[in-house]
Amino acid sequence: MMLRLLGVCLLVLAGLPIPCARAQAVVVPAQLYNGEALAAFLRKLPTAYAVSPPVSIIQIGDSHTAGDMVTNGWRRRWQAEYGSGGRGLMAVGRPYQGYLTWGVTARESADWAVNALFGRQHASDGAPLGLAGFTRTARRAGAWVQLAADSPADQFDRFGLCGLTGPDQGAVRVVFGAQARDYSFAAAAPGAACLDLAAARPEAGASVTTLDDRPVNLTSWAATRQSGGIVLANLGVVGSRLAHFSRNTDAITGVELRASHPDLVVIAFGTNEGFDPALHLDEAEAAIRGQVARIRTLLGYAVPILLLGPPDAASNRAEIALPGLPETVQCGNGWMMPGHLARIRALQLRLANELGLAFWDWQQAMGGACASSAWVEQGLQRGDHVHFTPLGGQVLGEALADDLDQARRGLPR
After folding, report:
1. Cβ proximity of 164 and 137 under 8 Å
2. What distance in Å separates the CA atoms of residue 138 and residue 339, rounded to the nearest whole number?
3. What domains are defined for the chain?
4. How far apart are CA 154 and CA 13, in angstroms?
């Protein structure tokens, strides 16, 4: 919120006053549209702390989701409010340099290769992909990955592991607390399977070690609690668009979705689409329509879905911002909000209304077009005018949580 005291502007964030510079960052509430589409999910929140399994949220997206700044701010707020159900579903190990997780830390041996939905790590003929967007492959005995809780509060009493099955697939030993379980991914036909282990009390970590030289392909793992609360999994691939989500395999993604049984799916793409000067809105629309239908088909039920519009962002490159477009906004100092960013946001809002989805206007929550200038100046957004600092992510995650809480309070009784 904004405060003015003795003529001095202060921005109060996370309980700490920060002097405002020339530009002033603001957080604008009430940016959730069509919140009634989430009614079935929102009604579960008041009793989330007392239910088992926990209330599950899965967010798929691009680097904003992968970086876990906003999702972590949202996660921390709601786990404090409704109880912690654990860290949730994640990519296995450390699939790329700079991979960040909050609450848990992964380590791995040097034996693991990776295939990804997008980027330099993507190989169209590589190992099939699942919900997390990364498949980790080892081809020798003794390769290991470990997941450790960062504090006692982050410990978990349920551990899940998903991977590819088939005639040539190998086996692993999973150690979870006092348990040691050998599990083979060998099967008559290619597919996917998930192992689910429960412990009598929260444990500090789990490890997975290959038992032979046959290939082992791991697609995700999960750390949760059986006692209830909120689980918010952030599954993002840097640089990706929603169209790339179709590169994962139905057989694998469906198994993982059904194992997670989400109460809410969040689709958070749009920045990379909006920064593409060759954007085709018809293709972007087809991706949204197709993936919404696909997710619900794979799950087998009409899961509530929230679209996150892209945040306010800017470019200082004319070939990206396209200053000739009427939607492009000049922000000053050579920075421009790309016109295609406005177009993809408008498309998402229209489709949310047509498809019965909720929509959160991330840009307007930041204060509108060119707000990124103020957010950068006050250390809430990085100097690229796109990505967020931990503090900026916390502020926005809490703003999203607040808007959803407000929508819940407004539901008819």
Report:
1. no
2. 44
3. 27-85+227-413 (3.40.50.1110), 89-226 (2.60.120.1360)
4. 25
Give per-residue pLDDT as tens, 209-234.
999 999 999 999 999 999 999 999 99
d(CA 217, CA 215): 6
Position of tokens 């997941």?
147
* Whether residue 13 has pLDDT greater than 80: no
CA 65 to CA 238: how far, in whole Å? 8
pTM: 0.94
**How far apart are the C-alpha atoms of 231 and 241, rounded to whole Å?**
24
β partners of residue 223: 88, 159
Return d(Cα 137, Cα 218) in angstroms, integer: 7
End-to-end alpha-carbon separation of the chain, Å? 30
Tell whether omega for the bond before 53 is within 30 degrees of 0, i.e. cis. yes
- Stated as kind and residue range, the H or E segment containing 373 is helix 372-377
Amino acid letter, residue 315: S
Q: How far is CA 378 from the centre of its chain?
A: 25
Q: What is the pLDDT of residues 304-316, one digit of tens each?
A: 999 999 999 999 9
d(CA 289, CA 36): 20
For strands 2-5 and 216-224, give the pairing. Answer: unpaired
What average pLDDT does range 231-256 have in this prediction? 98
- Both tokens of residue 208? 């997975």
| Pick from 32, 67, 55, 1: nearest CA to 390 | 67
Are 236 and 67 a contacting pair, CB within 8 Å?
yes
Phi/psi of residue 189, nearest 5 degrees = -135, 155
Q: What is the DSSP letter of 68?
A: T
Q: What is the CA radius of gyration of the chain?
A: 21
Beta-carbon-side half-sphere exposure of residue 120 (alpha carbons within 13 Å): 3
CA distance 88 to 58: 9
Count of helix runs (H) and strand runs (E) in the chain: 11, 22
CB neighbour list of residue 254: distance below 8 Å, 6 or more residues apart: 298, 299
Q: How far apart are CA 387 and CA 367, in angstroms?
A: 16
Q: Please, which residues have CB within 8 angstroms of residue 266's CB and are 6 or more apart in sequence?
A: 57, 58, 59, 60, 61, 305, 306, 307, 308
| Token pair belonging to 149 | 């809780």
How big is the chain, counted in residues? 413
